[in-house]
Each structure stands twice: as C-alpha cells, then as structure tokens.
Amino acid sequence: MASAPPSNSSAPVTVQNLNPKVVKCEYAVRGEIVTIAQRLQQELQAKPGSHPFDEILYCNIGNPQSLGQQPITYFREVLALCDHPAILDKSETQGLFSADSIERAWQILDQIPGRATGAYSHSQGIKGLRDAIAAGIEARDGFPADPNDIFLTDGASPAVHMMMQLLIRSENDGILCPIPQYPLYSASIALHGGTLVPYYLDEAAGWGLETSELKKQLESAKSKGLTVRALVVINPGNPTGQVLSGKNQRDIVEFCKQESLVLLADEVYQENVYVPDKKFHSFKKVARSMGYGEDDISLVSFQSVSKGYHGECGKRGGYMEVTGFGADVREQIYKVASVNLCSNISGQILASLVMNPPKVGDESYESYCAERDGILSSLARRAKTLEDAFNKLEGVTCNKAEGAMYLFPRIFLPQKAIKAAEAANTAPDAFYCKRLLNATGIVFVPGSGFGQVPGTLHFRCTILPQEDKIPAVVSRLTEFHEGFLDEFRD
Amino acid sequence: MASAPPSNSSAPVTVQNLNPKVVKCEYAVRGEIVTIAQRLQQELQAKPGSHPFDEILYCNIGNPQSLGQQPITYFREVLALCDHPAILDKSETQGLFSADSIERAWQILDQIPGRATGAYSHSQGIKGLRDAIAAGIEARDGFPADPNDIFLTDGASPAVHMMMQLLIRSENDGILCPIPQYPLYSASIALHGGTLVPYYLDEAAGWGLETSELKKQLESAKSKGLTVRALVVINPGNPTGQVLSGKNQRDIVEFCKQESLVLLADEVYQENVYVPDKKFHSFKKVARSMGYGEDDISLVSFQSVSKGYHGECGKRGGYMEVTGFGADVREQIYKVASVNLCSNISGQILASLVMNPPKVGDESYESYCAERDGILSSLARRAKTLEDAFNKLEGVTCNKAEGAMYLFPRIFLPQKAIKAAEAANTAPDAFYCKRLLNATGIVFVPGSGFGQVPGTLHFRCTILPQEDKIPAVVSRLTEFHEGFLDEFRD
C-alpha cells in the first residue's frame, strides 16, 4: 500500500509503540489474500495476458454490487430525489421517476426538520424514519417495536463496535462467539481489549448449535476468571450459511436469560433464506413468543442495508434495535452515539425503505417484486450450484447454504500439501487459497480467518458471482483442485 | 429519552458494570442543555404559546442546514445522478441537471469499478476520488499530495477516533489538546482510556498560543509519568474562532518535531475565514515550507464535508491525510479502516467535489461561486453582528470570530448568580445558559463543556442562524441578559 519505508527508531510512532490491541486485531476478509488479489488485478490491467486468467473474481466478501448485482430501482429513485429535492416539483421529474418514489421522497422530507437532508439528525437517527423502521419490525414480527429503541448507524459494523465498547471493561470480560464467526466480532473484541469465548457450531449437524456446548464453554471461561457479558449469534450464519431452527433459537434465548447474558443478534441476512423448509425469525420475536418481555432479557438486533436482496454496501446504512436495558444504560448508549453526531442520512433513508418497501397497489410494486425475486431466486440457484460443485471435489464436503451469502466447505488436504504449507510458513488453508488465486483469479478466504475446529480446514466462498460466471468458477476451481491434489498426493 | 425504568440489580448490564471509560466520557454539544431544548420544542409543538418564544434557535452545534442554509446545487446534482445513474442518458435529465454535473457524474462513475456506487470500496476510499482529493490538496498548498495518504471517513469524527485508538495504550499516554477545545477530543481520549494534557489558548491574545505554554504543559505531564504522544491543534479554532498566525503555526510544527509528537491538525474549517488579514494555511504546507518532509514530522490533517460553505453534515463525508508514518504503521491504520469496510460512497463523492469544485468555464461555475460567496459573506456579517452584540452586553467580552462557525464570549457573572448556580448544583455558565434557553429558546453551550481557564466563564454560540433572524437573537439575548443581571446584581 504505502511506498514509505518502515518506521525508523526515531519516528514518534512505530508498530512497537502503537496500541497493542490494534496490532493484535486481525481482519481476514480484507487480509493478505485480498492484497495479493489487488496486485494481480493491477498487473492484469497494466499487462493483459500476464496471468492465466483475465479477471479477478472476488468471492471473499459479501459485496454484491461489486460483482454486477444491480440496485433496486425504487430505492435509488427515492435516494436521488432526497439528495436533490429541488427537482421534485419539476415536470420532467415525472417522466424520469415513478410516481410512488416521488410521493415517498416528499413523505420522507416532511419527516426531516426543515427538509434538511444535509443536517445532522438526532443522534439515534431521524425520528420519522425510526417510526417507519419500528412499523416494519412490527409487521415482520407481530410484536410491538418502539422507535426509541432504534439506533441508526453507518452499517451494522459501527453498531457492533458500540456494543463491544459499552460491555468490555478489560481482558477479564468475555464475549461468547460462534466459531466459525464473521471476523468483525473477533476484531472488535480485540480492539476493545476483551476476550473472545468460542462456542463451536456443529458442522455435522448443518452448523447447528447445542446448549451443552454453550454451557461447557461458559463454565470453562468462568473457571479462568472471565466474566462473560454477552453471546453473539449470527442468523442466518456467516460464514456458515445455516438458518437456525426454532428450537435452537429458543434454547439460545433461554440460555441468555438463565445466565444473564446480553444477546447480540446479528440478523443482517434476514432476507437471505433460500430453502423452503426454513424461515427467518428474529430473536426478539422468539423471545416475545416465549413470553419474555423488556424486563426478562437484554437483546440487541443488528440490521444492515448491505445485505438482503438490495446489497447496498456502499451506502453504509443500518440500525440496532436495543431492548431490555434500563433507562440509565440507554442514556450511556445515546451518549456514545452522540459523540459521532449521527449516521449518514442517505443510509438512514435507505434503512427505512428496506424495512418498508413498496406495497401492493403502489406503482413500483410489481417491478420492485420482480427485481427482488429475480435476485433472491438467482442467489438460491447459485448457492445450490456451488454447493454441488464443492461436494463433487475430491476431499471436500460442503453443508447446504440455507441462507446468507456464503458457503464454508471443509477441505481435507494431503500431508504433502500440509508440509509444503509449513515450509512456506503459511496455514494450510491459506496455502490452498493463495495457490487457487494465483492459478485462477478466484479469491476465497481461508477458514483460519473465521476460526474452525483445530485440525480441520475450510474456506469461505461467496455465492455472489453473477449467474453467467458460475460455470466458469466451477470449471476453473475443479481443474485447479485436481491439479493441486495431483501435485501433492501422498 | 427511554421510557424504561432504570436498570435493576438483576439486569445483566447496569451503569455500574458498564465500561467505565464510556461512563466517564462527556459530550457537551449534545448534552443536558440540548435535551432540555428538545423537550421545550416538543412542548411548543404540542401547545403553541406555552413558552415565551415560538421556536428553539439551536446555536449549540455547527449544523448549518438545520437552520435553513441551502446546499450547493451543483454538489447535490452530482450526488443525485450518482445515486441513480439510470437517468444519466435520458433526455429529460438535461432539462433538470446542469451539463457539467452530468459530465462530472459520468467521470466519477468511470472511476468506480463496475460503476457500482452501492459496493463497498477500497478501505481507504475509491482510488479515483482520492486522486481528485490529492489534486485539490496540491492546488491548495503548492506541495505534492499522495492519494495513498488519503483515508476517506464518515466525517472527521471517526478519523479522530481512529488516530486516538492507534496512539493511546493506557492512561499513561497523554494527548496535548487546546483548552478550550471541541469536546470530540476530550470524549475520544476518554473513550480510548488516555489522558488529556491541556494547553491553554491565550484569550487576551485573540486565542493565540505560546510555545512556552506548550513546553510548560509537556514538562508537567512528563513529570507526572505521562508519555505525551500527540498534539491536537484546531485551526480555524473551535470553539474559539481564531485563525492561527503563520508564526504560531511554525512554532507548533517546530515544537512537534523537537518533541517527537504526532501533529493532529483539525482543519475542517479551512474554508471558513472571515477577515481579510488572515488566510488559512494547512499545517502540511507550513511544515513543507519549513523544509520538513515525510521523514521529519508525523502529521495528520482532518477535513470534513460538514463545514465550509457547503455544511453537508448529514452526508458524513471527510478524510484524513496521513503523512510521515512508516509503511508498517500505515498498514496498521489500513487494517483498522478495513474493519469498518469503508466510508459511505456519497460522502466520499462529496469530499472529492468539495476539494474540486466547478472551475472557470464550467456551466455551473458562476452559480456555484454566487452560492458559495453568498453563504460565506453572510456568515462573516453574522459573525460581526453577534460579536458586536456580545461586546455591548454588560460584563461580556468577545474576541473576533476570524473563522470557523463560533463565538466564545467570556462572561463575568455577579457573585449572587454564582451562588444561585451553586445552590442549583449547576456550573455558573450552565446556569446562565439554561436560564437563557428557558426565557428565549436560544441554545448556547456552557464554556465548561469545552474547558476554560479555572475561574473564568464562557459560552459557545454558533453564527449560523439565518441572517434575518439575527436581529431577534440579539434583541432577545440583550433583553434576557439585562434582566438576568438585574435579578442577580450584587
């Protein structure tokens, strides 16, 4: 990245005197493998034909629009009109924009004091947009939602950081996290100086989870003197792609209640469910269905505009719904939100649209549904094709992608390959992924970046390449894999 | 805010077991006085005539568009077109948008891989936009700028947090900050567990600063066992409104170089200079003019789209230019940026526009200049009118607002008022500001929120109410002030 030389000893800041929590933190989905991919891409641009592939296929990150997914037209119409309200009452605008997008833009502007989309909002976000989001949550769950519980954020990541910052006092505070996990959690816990307490998802049971495993890990953490403060659950799963069963969800709620843990529910893939026998249920709905209210469980649900069928990663919109905390704790959360003033208003507007898309009878309703269903059904087909392809590879097994945007296949490598990785001072799964990248331009993330049962090897692959590219991914991957095994066969 | 009761002792999270750094942190510009103002506003809406004023005038925060300032048309045109590129080649679009905004939108889209404004970008921001920003910095300073030194962020605040997170290891690490200061700094240092080392600006010298004061405070901090890592300077000043002299700036650079301190330069008000005898010079320009290059001084400059003549606070755009760090440290900064993926793309685009506005010959050039100059000249008039009004008040003295968006008058209160404040368990300046708010609807922030020489009292007032409202602000303030003094005269 930088062309500068490393720090010399007289520089005021060196890696040795940086905050060690920063140095310790790791973030695999933008780690070394991506740096290599960016270099290869530059080489291809500078000298076409310099590698045995003509483009880099970024399957490392859930970034749908970077791979050609188109945004939902209605959402972008509303955003453009809110950015430049001066055109709202011009006659040409009616020729360019749908009638309901114009109407929605007016509604949104009327909810913003002075119609000022360029002003800082309330620290939690514009009240009228929070009203809309709360209404969307109620419609989804069938239980009440309070706009005062909504904190709009620049994507889900800052919301996760905010909760970690609130909960973690020292390395003696532990946070229960699934393994494999999305490395935002390990990174955020490291940055805030806490301790990640792992609980393992059961690969043989479709990445389900057992309460016995939660209890075992909690007891183990307590015996080491840790105070465990919260449990993270990602549903649908990242990187594992499972959709938790109702029983699993109820077990988790019960466990958090019994053990007085905050339940941090990453629900950003709530729209991404691809199998008919599974359905997304929010943890709040599950808890309320069990009869647990505000006083019974502290629960934070994270949502993002980056995922779903819309995939608006670049807009950095999202929210957390914060329930079951006392007013005094809520004031502290509000204060931390205030220090950053507010999240970006376009992201706020988009979050309200995602939770309140066009309805039957609206001019855009049919085209909106066609765009949404086209994307989701294509994602389901891509997930199935890739899953089948992985399962056909020698020494690879892959669970079903029931939801989210990822597959997390397990790979069994020959001893000779593992030794070659050791010789190259690289984890075996990273060794495989680097070789794959250099041979095919396909970017996977090694399982070691997410955590895995010791001794097992995996990689994460997104299901996001456009459908017409999937056959090439499969054939390039298959050809590489066979060659790799031939090279290292014991 | 919340309707929930305070935490009970069985709740997993209480204020007593939260991260104490969070509890300690304060942020006055959205503190108690704003909460009161929001309540009054709700009461006025519910029951017009219930207070002796008909609107709340928020002079607490630099949020121009919330008080009626209009956005720059060209900037909003480009943003709308980038949000909804599908209309770019429609014939109606030419009737609605300026030709150069259409051209600029095409240019920007061509710099984004796949023209995907909905994709996560490079962790530092879109390369083409960083190129444009670097070119803008070069044109401003007359010294080279490297796009790889630019980190685009969701406003300046997250950039400041990022640097504090990197530098602060424990409470033994100190950060030199001006007093009075913008409370983002005290809040961020508290959240990251460091120690604020104050240096006092000299009110009698127009809020200038003396190297002797810097040396004295540095020595004092060292004698307490602190390692001082960085010096924060805000130029033009917030809340103090001064523009530093060239000599002051050179002294600061020399001091940081001699003492091996990172210079953190808050330059977000660089466009807000209102007096003909002062001009903004970036600290990078000053350092380079002194012959100091990459190897001589570690310097971070913060810029934002929220301030200037554009005042696009809600867009959350900004950047930091990071120079004079080794490649290994830069990798760590990159990693922390990566954990949050990227800043919002609209904010990134806006930051590139702010640093590269329309040029002579562009269709929008004249209207752009008229909008910009209209806002800046009006701000200069408002600053002067308010300054004069403050200086006419009995027991109030006010330095000139040479720049930024604030005045920070000093107020001498009678002993009887100070005793009444004590009786109400309130700081005397907060007591005055609360009384002012309840009587007039005007929101000032007490000086105690920014820090001040012990025994002195101040408040911060923005110069942002629209020009036609300034006479009412002055008359309401004057009337209140006279009544207040009459009530408490010794």
Automatic annotation (TrEMBL), chains A, B:
Transferase listed as a keyword: yes
Transmembrane feature ranges: none
Pathway: Amino-acid degradation; L-alanine degradation via transaminase pathway; pyruvate from L-alanine: step 1/1; Photosynthesis; C4 acid pathway
Cofactor: pyridoxal 5'-phosphate
Alphabetically ordered keywords of this record: Aminotransferase, Pyridoxal phosphate, Transferase
Residue ranges constituting the Aminotransferase class I/classII large domain according to the UniProt record: 114-473
Pfam families: Aminotran_1_2 (PF00155)
Top enzyme class: transferase
EC number: 2.6.1.2
Family matches, as CDD domains: AAT_like
Matches recorded under InterPro entries: ALAT1/2-like, Aminotransferase_I/II_large, PyrdxlP-dep_Trfase, PyrdxlP-dep_Trfase_major, PyrdxlP-dep_Trfase_small
Alphabetized GO MF terms: L-alanine:2-oxoglutarate aminotransferase activity; pyridoxal phosphate binding
PANTHER family with a match to the protein in the record: ALANINE AMINOTRANSFERASE (PTHR11751), ALANINE TRANSAMINASE (PTHR11751:SF29)
Assembly, per entry: Homodimer.
Family: Belongs to the class-I pyridoxal-phosphate-dependent aminotransferase family. Alanine aminotransferase subfamily.
The name this protein goes by in its record: alanine transaminase
Lineage: Eukaryota, Viridiplantae, Streptophyta, Embryophyta, Tracheophyta
